[in-house]
Amino acid sequence: MHILVVDDDPVSLMIMASRLEQFGHEVAIASDGFEALQILEQSAVVSFVISDWMMPGMDGLELCRKIRTTPFRRYIYFILLTIREDKASLVEGMDAGADDFLVKPVDQEELRVRIRAGERILRLERQLDEHNQHLEQLNRHLQQAYDTIRNDLEAAARLQRALLPAPATLQGFRFEWLFLPSRFIAGDMFGYFRLTDQHVSFYQLDVAGHGIPSALLSFTLSKMLFQGEEQGLLRSRLPGEEKHCQIILQPAQVVSELNRRFEADADSMVYFTMVYGLIDTRLGQVMFTQAGHPAPIWVRRDLQQIVRPSSGGFPVAMLPDMTYETVHLTLAVGDRLILYSDGITECENAAGQVFSEQRLLNLVESYAHQPLHGLTEAVGQALRHWKGDEQFQDDISLLAIERLSSWCG
Amino acid sequence: MHIETRQENNALVVQILEKRLTASGVPDFKQALRAALKDPVPLLIIDMSAVEFVDSSGLGALVSVLRMLGGQNDLRLAGVKGAVRELFKLTRMDRAFKLFDSVTDALAGS
Question: Is the pLDDT of residue A227 over 80?
Answer without folding.
Answer: no
